[in-house]
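Record type: monomer structure entry
Structure origin: computed from sequence
Chain ID: A
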Amino acid sequence: MNYHSTEVRQKALTLLRDGMKNADVARQLNVPKGTISYWKHVDRARRGECPGRAQRPACPRCDGELNMRSPSLSIACAEVHPGLVDECERAMRSVFPNNSVCRVRRKGCWEVKLYSMHVWCLFPQHGPGKKHERRIALEPWQQEIVDEHPWEFIRGLIHSDGCRITNWTTRVVGGERRRYEYPRYFFTNTSADIIQLFTGTLDKLGVEWKSLNQSRAAVTISIARKASVALMDAHVGPKY
């Protein structure tokens, strides 16, 4: 992690207050654009210039009186799927309408990022270490949301840790061997809890699945039955 001196930060704030754009400040001072956006947000908040600052927006999980350093939420999205990058940003803006969302360019991907005091409120599964080494369970209020929007939950999991591919094989038809193609979905994760959340929701939706035999720690779920693939195509679809 790179730490920037108070002098650099103050120089950035001076340029921002003079009207310079975030990207231009980041380029001039060789500081990530996301960092510049955060500094600007904090500076405006301290001066009472943020929209809605006079009346602090309500948080559905707490009373809003948090006194700690603001945590960040970062989601890395592969640049080969620009549609998913756009959807990720829209979702973050929808959940955190009073916070700034920025995109930080990384090698081969975009990091969609925001800072909010209430990230911990809405993501109680946070914790130190790798997620497959600790328990991942939905809170009752989260389960209610998944129960109300199960396909959106499945879609998010597939588009983050899954895929839609086209398999093929050959068969003899009328004495002639022909190529036969068929689509299927895969979902791979090392966390047994996340696998259970995924397959449990598939069961409720009537989607047939099976677990593939693998030697590695990660588990891969396959959806290959024609009717189930049709359901997935209607509600999930390939990455884009």
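Annotation 1: The chain has nine helices and seven strands.
Annotation 2: The mean pLDDT is 88.
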